Q: What sequence folds into this?
């Protein structure tokens, strides 16, 4: 279980691409197969959680992105 550093980095790129265009086809960060399922399970403003699932290789991982960086903390 768990993602390697490379897989995590790729996952973050996939999430960034999905956030800019939720309709694009996503490739699995582990096996590269198109059709990755991504679900936003974030608990804003505290953290972002993304669930990634791939039918091709059985990937089933939740990515946690902590929030609270100064540039993203403007909730006035
Ligand atoms: Zn896969």
A:
């Amino acid at each position: 279980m768990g993602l390697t550093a490379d897989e995590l980095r790729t996952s973050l790129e996939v999430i960034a691409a999905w956030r800019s265009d939720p309709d694009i086809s996503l490739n699995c960060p582990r096996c590269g197969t198109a059709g990755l399922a991504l679900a936003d399970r974030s608990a804003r403003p505290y953290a972002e959680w993304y669930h990634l699932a791939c039918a091709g290789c059985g990937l089933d991982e939740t990515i946690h992105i902590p929030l609270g960086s100064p540039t993203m903390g403007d909730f006035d």
The chain is about 20% helix and 25% strand. Residues 28, 30-31, 33, 54, 56-57, 59 surround zinc ion (CB under 6 Å).
